[in-house]
């Protein structure tokens, strides 16, 4: 049972280019979360998606950042016109359908991350 | 902001139990206590979670006080590979629109030989 997959693991972009980060959730998981970890800082929530829907994007910058989770294929985090401040580790997590009683089944499982470096 | 308070760092001798405390005095009745850890440069790893009863799995035990204002994560026999930053997080159970995890600074556990 493969875990959460992210690719690429390392991505180098020059200022002004676009970065596309991909996340394949665990089999059977329909919820995807994206987090960002700046150097020497904690993880910060960015966006929460279900298939074809953005549920919560309160942590995502209003400009240049977008996310999608299509019916088929991986979730994509897209950063347009990257700047040096976008350099960070971007982690994706997935969870199964929520359970209503003990919260079982909604644990988030994280991928290995994509380390973005903007030159 | 994180709703939890943890010591910034702790040391533990290899083979001994590691007891990591967490204060969550403002926890609500529908909020669970979750623990994750992040080994250097890797993605966070889920450890355990609970509501009010103590919980145990193959990785750790979680002891929650009766008033639910604090908890302790116990790694019964710490190994060098348990060296990591441990995060205590409170959130509503069931995920959904409140499902995102709010990470604080965590406790950096160093297991020493």
Characterization of this structure:
The complex is a heterodimer of chains A (119) and B (113). Chain A is mostly beta strands and 119 residues long. Chain A is built from no helices and eleven strands. In chain A, strands 2, 4, 5, 6, 9, 10 and 11 form a seven-stranded mixed sheet that branches. In chain A, a hairpin with a 2-residue loop joins strand 5 (43-50) and strand 6. The termini of chain B are far apart. In chain B, strand 6 (61-64) and strand 7 form a beta hairpin. Chain B is mostly beta strands and 113 residues long. The interface between A and B is medium-sized, with 29 and 26 residues.
Pairing-aware structural class of the strands and helices of chain B? mainly beta
Query: Major sheet of chain B: order of its strands?
Result: 1-9-8-3-4
Low-confidence runs of at least 5 consecutive residues of chain B: none
Largest interface: A-B, 29 and 26 residues
> How widely separated are the two ends of chain B?
35 Å
Q: How much helicity do the residues of chain B have? A: under 10%
Strand content of chain A: over 45%
Tally of helical segments of chain B: 0
Strand content of chain B: over 45%
Largest sheet of chain A: 7 strands, mixed
DSSP E strands of chain B, number: 9
| Approximate shape of chain B | globular
- Give the overall average pLDDT of chain A: 90
Please count the helical segments of chain A.
0
Radius of gyration of chain B: 13 Å
Radius of gyration of chain A: 14 Å
Shape label of chain A? globular
Q: Topology as H/E string of chain B?
A: EEEEEEEEE
The low-confidence parts of chain A are none
pLDDT average of chain B, as an integer?
90
């Amino acid at each position: 049972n493969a875990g959460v997959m992210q690719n690429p693991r390392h991505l180098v972009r020059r200022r002004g280019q676009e970065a596309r980060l991909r996340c394949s959730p665990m089999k059977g998981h329909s919820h995807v979360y994206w987090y960002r970890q700046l150097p020497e800082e904690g993880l910060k929530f960015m966006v929460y998606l279900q298939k074809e829907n953005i549920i919560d994007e309160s942590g995502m910058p209003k400009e240049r950042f977008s996310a999608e989770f299509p019916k088929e294929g991986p979730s994509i985090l897209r950063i347009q016109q990257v700047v040096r401040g976008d350099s960070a580790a971007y982690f994706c997590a997935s969870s199964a359908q929520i359970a209503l009683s003990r919260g079982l089944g909604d644990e988030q499982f994280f991928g290995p991350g994509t380390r973005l470096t903007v030159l | 902001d994180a709703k939890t308070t943890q010591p910034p760092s702790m040391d533990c001798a290899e083979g001994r139990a590691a007891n990591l405390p967490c204060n969550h005095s403002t926890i609500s009745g529908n909020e669970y206590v979750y623990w994750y850890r992040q080994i250097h440069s890797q993605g966070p790893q889920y450890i355990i979670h609970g509501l009010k009863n103590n919980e145990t799995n193959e990785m750790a035990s979680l002891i929650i006080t009766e008033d639910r204002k604090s908890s302790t994560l116990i790694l019964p026999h710490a190994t060098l590979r348990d060296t990591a930053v441990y995060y205590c997080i409170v959130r509503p159970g069931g995920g959904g629109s409140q499902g995102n995890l709010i990470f604080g600074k965590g406790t950096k556990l160093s297991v020493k030989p």
